[in-house]
Amino acid sequence: MIVGMAPRALLACPDCDLLQREPEPADRTVVTCARCGSVLYRDTPDTVDRTLAFALGASVLFIVANAFPIVGMTIEGRSNTVSLPGALVALWHQDMQLVAGLVGLTTLLAPGLVLAALLYLVLPLHFGRQPPGVPLILRTLDSIQPWGLVEVFMLGLLVSLVKLEMYAKVVPGVALWAFGALLLVFTAMAAAFDPRSLWARIGTARSGAGR
Ligand SMILES: [Zn+2]
Predict the structure, then answer these.
(1) Interior/surface letters 99-110, b for 16+ CB within 10 angstroms, e for the rest
(2) What is the mean pLDDT of residues 30-51?
(3) Those residues with Cβ within 8 angstroms of residue 139's Cβ, 6 or more apart along the chain or in another chain
(4) Angle at CA 189, nearest 5°, toward 171 and 144?
(5) How far is the CA of 141 from the centre of ligand 1 (A)?
(6) Domain residue extents for the chain
(7) How far apart are CA 185 and CA 205, in angstroms?
(8) At what angle do helices 134-144 and 110-126 cross, to 10 degrees?
(9) Which of 38-47, 49-58, 67-76 has maximum average pLDDT?
(10) Which of 70, 97, 122, 174 is 20 to 30 A (C-alpha) from 2?
(11) 17 alpha carbon to ligand 1 midpoint, in Å?
(12) Are 100 and 206 in contact (CB under 8 A)?
């Protein structure tokens, strides 16, 4: 296999700056620095399947969390229980555009996009196919990553609940529990996702296709 014969890449140790060659791929390895022993990277060959499992679970929770009522609001004199997207629309119409926009970005748009991007990557790879535009998707995910996906999501949710409490009563129902579970699954998904192992999988998917 040509992929295996390519010269190994050079890695710099984040702690002592020692340059060293990447070792041959093994089944499951933690690669440590030859000099100081700090972890250079971990190889997780099952990253595709584990990311896929968590992403599917997170998608279901994401839909449930946003479909069920999360707050009780009084809109135009009538009290109502509304979902988070519904509450954001109500906030928007009450001249709270900045809060509605920020909460929408951190609790709806960002996690929704990340879920869609991950599913787009790992679902075809699970079946041995390579989706088009992988470098673009990985670069996009990489640019979102510094935000600290889970932290931003958690912060956005907290801010929205605190803000909403000023106008509405938070309903401790299905949606709230789904959001809590979503945070856990999202954390697990972010931990399972390893771009390095994904690249390796893409290499074998490409040579396996014989194109
Ligand atoms: Zn070192």
Answers:
(1) bbebbbebbbeb
(2) 81
(3) none
(4) 90
(5) 28
(6) 2-42, 48-209
(7) 27
(8) 140
(9) 49-58
(10) 122
(11) 6
(12) no
